Amino acid sequence: MIANHKGEIPVVILLLPFLAGITCGLSYTLPPFVFWISGAIGITFIILNFAYSRLPVFKVRWLGGLLMYIILFLLGWIFTYQHNELNNNKHFAGKPAQYLAVVINSEPVIKNDLTRFTASVKQRVNNGVATPASGSLLITIKDELAQNLFYGEELLIPAKYQAADPPFNPGEFNYKRYLANKNIYYQAFIYPKQYTVVAAAKGNPVIAYALRLRQNLVKKLKLNMPDSTAAAVASTLILGYKADLGNDVLQSYSKTGTIHILSVSGGHVAIIYLLLSWALSFLSNNKRGKTIKAIVIIALIWAYSLLSGFSPAVCRAALMISLVIGGKAYSRYINSLNLLATSAFLLLLYDPFLITDVGFQLSYLAVAGLIVFQPIVYKWFTFKNTILNKLWLACSVSIAAQVITFPLSAYYFHQFPVYFLLSNLFIIIPVSLIMYSGLLLLALPQIPAVSKALGYFLDKCIMVMNKGLSVIEHAPFASINKIWLTQVEYLLMSVIIFLLFYFMFDRKAWLIKIAAFCLLLFSISISYKHIKADSTRSITFLNLRKHRGIVFKNGNTGVVVTDLADTDRNFTYAIQPCLDSNRISTYRVVNFNAPVQLPYMIKQNNFIRFLNKTVLILNDEAPIKSIPQGFDINYLFISDNTSGYPNALNKGTGEVILDAANSDQYIKQLEPLLRKQHLNYRILRRNKSVTVLSN
User: Fold this and answer.
1) Residue 235 in contact with residue 429, Cβ under 8 Å?
2) Nearest-CA neighbor of 233 among 567, 470, 443?
3) What are the backbone angles phi and psi of residue 142, rounded to the nearest 5°?
4) Do residues 312 and 360 make contact, with C-beta atoms less than 8 angstroms apart?
5) How many other CB atoms are found less than 10 A from the CB of residue 429?
6) Spatial distance between the Cα atoms of 438 and 429, rounded to a whole number of angstroms
7) Looking at residue 689, what is its pLDDT?
8) Tell me, what's the pLDDT at 123?
9) What local confidence, expressed as pLDDT, does residue 644 receive?
């Protein structure tokens, strides 16, 4: 549904300056004079509206719209500034404290022996005196007793926290930005006996009840379903509970383009709506009954949204369906794009930082694609056969949603599922059966025979779905991986897709010309990156914290010298993104003790010759007593608090790299010696990796 005139979608048009203001607020601090400007413009706008007929400005039609756009832009900027907890003068990091009184504001997640949750800081405590404080803190507790903690409990913890670390290595996930987008800037790691439970039931009682109910429902699924993996998928799909979901399952759904079903969103809410609408159809006979039906359905949909965790996608769906139901109850037509924009505006008023949430962005893009592009795709083919027509309808929905979200998903997740159409068609029936049978199982009381039968059926449906997706995942060319787009490339790709779809709707030559120009720029950018990557020879000393790693890049080939296996989680998290972002498609992973004999690299014991550069590795696995005089070393890599460094230092040493695996005390002792010998050195600990070019 493409609007013929902007007057058909006023909320969409008004949302754009508000989004621009939020984006500006995320990037720039708010100058004090903006408040005065906002007040002056607001007063001017009100005066013009009251004295519109008496003033000659009515002849300038664009003035009112311009003022409104400026007000919305400034409103978005101000809301974002005020929402940022660091701008609150009561933020706990603003003043020192001995202890912090915090209230758990999320459901604790238990992984291995660690319990992690977010908490709201309520007070600073100094010498027994408490003062009000604000802010959020990510807390990790290494203690078995912490597994019994629950939402709403108040804790007294030491005021020992630190800012989240930025990404240290190329391509690494920016966890610091991820937390900042959730308005969390500090984290604390706590050990046994360092915290005290002060009180309980300090959170929102409705949320506390919903979380306890969800825990009980998850236990019911586990009790009645034989397979633990299937129970984890059911808990995620039906209730939005992801704590038990394994990475292998997530990878399978991600590579097949069906990851969206593991996030409770519009499809899940639509199923709930259809079920409730059918169950309450007897109320549709009169106007009063329609009103009661609308109120009950809206209330139950929001209750389900609360139960599933209030994710941005489910909130968007609940808001949109609520507006649609309200409109139908009063026989009013509302443009779908206006509904979508209204729901976005309301959610962003509540939390402007939602604009940075990947789920929020993908959810709104997908729905916008369905509203605007799906009718265009559906018109590509016409089938008289009812079954084929419905099948093509489902295909058009999948194509529209996947194509519009492709640039964003490629930008964030660096892959594209080739068989997304097949996998999305395959899961339609299983997902429907899973949702309805799962909801029936959870709604009925525990009746051994009935509950076990429903659990068995639910288990088998999920097993069939998982096996089918696994076959698609391992099919040849199932996905295109290692897609690394810049922001400019992402924007160019989005513009190209939009222009091509718009051309299908309105056959104007200028659309194709602009799309072709954008495609040319996109191709130039991609080609330049490929040429640059293939001609680059470099050495990257990685910051792996407790581990060690060096990447030698020779065009699109390379060698990784590390103490990690390529199956290790740390390798996947830190080293693999470095390889992919640097376009190293072929590489070897070797241990620090292993020899290497390649045309561009020779490694013997601790000596490495890479093209025209020499690297010497010092660690306790193979310590070196001395280095021959006159033997030039371009880079001396010191790790593991080795004791062999004094004899290794000589005038031929070009630069010293102190690995992150060295302790702070060791680095502190070594620095004076390095300065005394006038050697250049870099410290990896708490710093970004070091990349040097080689010829």
Assistant:
1) no
2) 470
3) -100, 85
4) yes
5) 12
6) 14
7) 94
8) 94
9) 61
Radius of gyration of the chain (CA): 29
**Are the C-beta atoms of 434 and 461 separated by less than 8 Å?**
yes
Residue 121, pLDDT score? 95
- What Cα–Cα distance (Å) separates residue 140 from each residue in 110, 174, 189, 601? 10, 19, 5, 43
The sign of the dihedral angle between the CA atoms of 315, 316, 319, 320 is: negative
Q: What is the pLDDT of residues 506-531, one digit of tens each?
A: 888 999 999 999 999 999 999 999 99
User: From its phi and psi, is residue 331 left (phi > 0), alpha (psi between -120 and 50) or beta?
Assistant: left
Structure tokens at 596: 């290497």
How far is Cα 533 from Cα 584, in angstroms, rounded to an integer?
A: 8
Structure tokens at 448: 């051994």
**pTM check: above 0.85:** yes
Per-residue b/e over 293-315, b at no fewer than 16 CB within 10 Å?
A: bbeebbebbbebbbbbbebbbbb
State the pLDDT at residue 18.
95
- pLDDT the model gives residue 427: 87
Extract the tokens encoding 202. 């300090």
Integer CA distances (angstroms), 619 to 431, 604, 646, 652, 664, in order: 54, 14, 13, 19, 16
3-state DSSP call for residue 335? coil
According to the model, what pLDDT value does residue 652 have? 61
- Joined together, the tokens standing for residue 167 give 């990404």
CB-count exposure of residue 491 (10 Å: 0-12, 13-18, 19+): middle
Quick check: 216 and 420 in contact, CB under 8 A? no
601 in helix, strand or coil?
strand
| 625, 682 Cβ separation under 8 angstroms | no
How far is 574 from 586, CA to CA, in rounded Å? 17
Contact status, residue 139 vs residue 187, Cβ threshold 8 Å: yes
Helix (H) or strand (E) holding 397: helix 386-413
Residue 129, both tokens: 């005196």
* Residue whose C-alpha is closest to residue 125's, from 154, 87, 85: 154
What pLDDT, on the 0 to 100 scale, is given for residue 593? 87
Positions in the chain short of pLDDT 50:
none
Asked if residue 98 lies in contact with residue 127, where contact means CB atoms within 8 angstroms, the answer is yes
The neighbour count for residue 218, using CB atoms within 10 Å, is 21
H or E, element range at 560: strand 557-562
The phi and psi torsions of 549 (rounded to 5 degrees) equal: -165, 135
Place of tokens 């059926």: 457
**Beta strands 557-562 and 586-590, pairing class:** parallel
